[in-house]
Task: inverse folding
């Protein structure tokens, strides 16, 4: 079952992630065009090579999104997808693109997640109270509208906090180890010019002293919203052979969805990234011990902890000890989120998970500069959408 | 902060109405599948165990334990600014189903996972009663 490992990431593009964006504002379509050109140039390909595209929602269209992007780019395609998996979207894009290439539908697929601010509307717009519901649906008939939102259970912070509390009750909890995870990642971010926290490491004490948001999650354990975005180009083996960089082959993937609101999860401490990762490792024919770097979706510290356990890097309940025993920075003995993760890059809207994909490819291509992991051939990537309700995993390997 | 914002309230549907009517009367009624005996929550048209549409309503005691919780130090949305800190909870009924609620009549330092809870019927309007929980 699965991929043969004959589709590769051949080009990458990434906007610098910044808390305060000072550049020119651009519509999502314009950012799509810009990121596509950057990624094609990086690969050594041209616009005419594109015959597939994977997108997520854009600000300028509510439906017919792929056609809107295709038309704007002026490049017809044989394969177009729109992915709606929250933070698992980037990983979901990559495996679908790889599958389409292996099926022979297309040869060169662009996947982009732009997230710079768009221009301000010339006519002042009223505040839409719908924005307060964030990812929770207040529509009539929505289970969340009826059974969760009226109690105040909406958006992300409270769900992740309740997962962390449950974990604490079942397995114990060491706030200092969650803080160490942040400090290790921020060391990597501090030497990544694209990270919002470039040049700004933190200590364990800084994390523990940051403001409590929803017990037990503190401010520095939660991603900071930023402007950013990124893109990758995938290509067939034949095309990859004429590209500029070492092809980063997609050799395994998995995806698993269970619930939308964590109240209804069977077991909050055993997350969908478990089955997704087992499928990915099995497809690639490797084990967690073969991984040289793990780019783990990190909207919150608890997400990384549970992914380390459920993906099999350590046993259930051993995550705190694993963090204590390993240096997780890019120069450490078990590199996690070598770009600083989203806790170090900042989270650019729905594009956060693309930072993990771009960094994984960068590491395999040997282009991570000061952050380069020596001999990095095999990388694990995860994506997490909702409140650990839809998760995905990738294995990327050098050709 | 916009104080004009009305709190979002449940708007029952034809399928869920018996649940809300029960709460208004101080009774907790939960669906159970007549084919596979699974308890189903929230109310649905079909069973989450076997997708049977033969679901019937049963009154339950409301005896519960705390599955997990958090104390919000920041409002989850502006509608709840006046309730901060909220003790948001996932509560497990004796029947094994879980629901979203908030804890009342408890000091946050006394909250612990596994604690026994009893239902509190909060009649927030003429038609809507929210199901909250307090230490048993």
Result:
């Amino acid at each position: 079952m699965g991929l043969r490992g004959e589709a590769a990431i051949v080009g990458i593009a990434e906007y610098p992630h910044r808390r305060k964006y000072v550049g020119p504002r651009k519509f999502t379509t314009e950012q799509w065009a810009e990121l596509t050109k950057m990624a094609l140039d990086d690969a050594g390909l041209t616009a005419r090579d594109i015959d597939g595209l994977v997108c997520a929602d854009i600000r300028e269209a509510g439906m017919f999104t792929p056609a809107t992007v295709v038309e704007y780019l002026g490049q017809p395609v044989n394969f177009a997808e729109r992915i709606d998996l929250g933070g698992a979207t980037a990983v979901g894009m990559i495996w679908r693109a790889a599958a389409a290439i292996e099926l022979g539908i297309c040869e060169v697929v662009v996947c982009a997640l732009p997230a710079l601010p768009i221009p301000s509307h010339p006519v002042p717009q009223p505040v839409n109270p719908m924005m307060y519901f964030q990812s929770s649906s207040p529509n009539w008939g929505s289970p969340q509208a009826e059974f969760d939102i009226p109690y105040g259970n909406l958006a992300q912070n409270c769900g992740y906090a309740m997962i962390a509390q449950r974990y604490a009750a079942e397995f114990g909890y060491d706030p200092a180890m969650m803080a160490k995870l942040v400090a290790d990642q921020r060391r990597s971010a501090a030497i990544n010019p694209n990270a919002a926290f470039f040049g700004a490491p933190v200590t364990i004490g800084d994390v523990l002293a940051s403001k409590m948001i929803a017990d037990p999650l503190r401010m520095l354990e939660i991603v900071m919203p930023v402007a950013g975005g990124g893109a990758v180009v995938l290509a067939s083996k034949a095309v990859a052979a004429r590209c500029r960089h070492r092809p980063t082959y997609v050799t395994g993937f998995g995806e698993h969805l269970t619930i939308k609101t964590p109240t209804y999860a069977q077991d909050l401490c055993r997350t969908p990234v478990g089955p997704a990762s087992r499928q990915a490792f099995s497809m690639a024919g490797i084990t967690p011990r073969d991984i040289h770097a793990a780019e783990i979706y990190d909207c919150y510290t608890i997400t990384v902890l549970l992914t380390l356990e459920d993906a099999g890097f350590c046993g259930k309940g051993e995550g705190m000890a694993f963090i204590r025993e390993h240096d997780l920075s890019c120069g450490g003995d078990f590199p996690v989120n070598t770009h600083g993760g989203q806790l170090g890059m900042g989270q650019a809207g729905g594009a956060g998970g693309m930072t993990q994909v771009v960094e994984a490819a960068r590491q395999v291509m040997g282009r991570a500069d000061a952050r380069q992991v020596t001999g990095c051939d095999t990388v694990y990537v995860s994506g997490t959408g909702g409140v650990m309700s839809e998760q995905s995993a990738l294995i990327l390997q050098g050709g | 902060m916009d104080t004009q914002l009305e709190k979002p309230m449940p708007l029952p549907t034809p399928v869920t109405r018996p649940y809300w009517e029960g709460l208004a009367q101080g009774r907790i009624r939960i669906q159970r599948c007549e084919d596979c005996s699974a308890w189903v929550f929230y109310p649905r048209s079909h069973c989450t165990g076997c997708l049977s549409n033969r679901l019937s309503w049963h009154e339950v005691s409301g005896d519960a334990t705390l599955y997990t919780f958090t104390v919000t130090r920041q409002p989850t949305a502006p509608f709840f600014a006046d309730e901060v800190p909220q003790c948001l909870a996932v509560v497990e009924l004796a029947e094994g189903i879980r629901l979203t609620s908030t804890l009342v009549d408890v000091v946050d330092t006394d909250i612990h996972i596994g604690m026994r809870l009893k239902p509190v019927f909060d009649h927030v309007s003429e038609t809507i009663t929210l199901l909250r929980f307090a230490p048993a």
In short: The interface with chain B takes residues 127, 129, 132-134, 138, 140-141, 143, 145-155, 157-158, 161-166, 168-169, 211-215, 217, 261-264, 268 of chain A (CB under 8 Å). Residues 318 and 395 of chain A are 23 Å apart (CA to CA). The radius of gyration of chain A is 20 Å.
